[in-house]
Amino acid sequence: VDKETTERYKNKRAWEYDVLSQGYRYHMTNILASVGISQIKRVVEFIDSRVRVCTAYTEAFSGLKGVITPSTDYVGVSPFIYSLRVPENLRAGLIEHLGGLGIDTGIHFIPVHEHTFYPNARRGGMEVTDRVTKQVVTLPLHSNMRPDFVERVIEGVTGYFS
To answer: Which residues pair with 137 in a beta bridge?
Structure first.
């Protein structure tokens, strides 16, 4: 990746990056491994809390005009992000609106064919991919989110579209 994570998050367009070469992530230390082992004991709690947030988001946003929510019941799913699709011409405004409320957002997926490292990737005939990646925005999701913060995110999104 052409920008370190800390550098990407110093500006408003943190999701913009390019993949220049193959890379690996070998960041685990013994201390982090021990923390990970202790956290595994709480995995059901963490997954259940994330599913509750995702379900609350979907229920709150499903009636918003032009907004597309994930179509899943989260059975057998361990959500790590919550992606919402909004009309392309409204995405930047939503991100700015939520940022003004102190709510971080992200755009987690850039299509492979847009990265330098994949010059031979298929380029044409991907209208759906190209459309969706211009619509998607990710909302805050982490284990054991406080209900008042979940409500703040919901009010921020619904407030923008009302």
So the answer is: 84
Taking the C-alpha atoms of 132, 133, 135 and 140 in order, what is their torsion angle to the nearest 10 degrees? 120
Residue matched to tokens 């193959």: 22
Tell me how far apart the alpha carbons of residues 143 and 109 are, in angstroms, rounded to a whole number: 21
pLDDT on residue 13: 64
Here the tokens at position 157 are 């999104």
Tokens in use for 9? 């998050």
Collapsed DSSP state (helix, strand, coil) of residue 14: coil
CA dihedral (60, 65, 71, 73) in degrees, to 10, reads: 20
Contact criterion met (CB below 8 Å) for 8 and 16: yes
How high is the mean pLDDT in each 10-residue block of the chain (162 residues)? Answer: 67 71 79 92 96 97 95 92 96 96 90 86 87 95 96 98 90
pTM over 0.85: no
Q: Cite the DSSP H helix spans in the chain.
A: 5-8, 30-40, 43-61, 88-100, 127-133, 147-161
CA–CA separation, 17 and 20 (whole Å): 9
Q: Residue 12 has what pLDDT?
A: 63
Over the range 99-120, which residues count as b (16 or more CB within 10 Å of their CB) and which as e? eeeebebbbeeeeeeebeeeee
